[in-house]
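sorry to bug you again but im stuck and you know this stuff better than me. what follows is a protein written twice so to speak, once as letters and once as structure tokens for the fold. id like you to explain what the token line says about the fold, in plain words if possible. anything you notice is useful, everything is just below.
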Amino acid sequence: MTFLFFFSALGAFNGFLLSVYFAINAKKKVFTNYFLSLLLLVLSIRIAKSVFFYFNPDLSNIFIQIGLSACILIGPFLFLYLKSYSTDGKQNWVWHIVPYLAVISILGYFYPYNEHVPVWTSWILKTIYFQWLVYIIISFKYLQPILQKIKDKENLKRIDVWFLSIYIGVAFTWLAYTTAAYTSYIVGALSFTFVLYLIVLLLIFRNSHESTFFN
């Protein structure tokens, strides 16, 4: 159990570190870096909540509420990050972030988790997971050029592999949480840890000549 806790928590911890790295040390301080940084941050918050709750069911309800609330921004940040590399034009990130922050803040204030556990587990969390899925689906179109390269048997750039890893990682984490009732709750944390190590591997072997990797 100690090894399982360490392995699971390591994913969340490394996620926090990568979040700080992309926010501070990436080559250009542009929104693209911040979208990736914030995506890793909200994922890490959600994973950390899962890990500590799994090994400590008496975890503070405030921490549980924060962890669940973070899920509402995972999908939007994935979408905004992938979209930022497209040619769709100006980013309207406010419309994808502020309304969700406002809604989850209002719900959290009037229906705090510690007093309304059934409300959170029955419909708030399910709604958040559905919203997360919607963003996974609409983000898929930004992978189509990469998939076309695979279909045409063209060589993928490292940035292409990076995008695929990010997308698959977020989608797999969503799947792990939505099916946790049929498998194990900790599988979400474990899946994120595996995916995170794939991302770290990409960072280690990145091509320094592909400057767009950190643009």
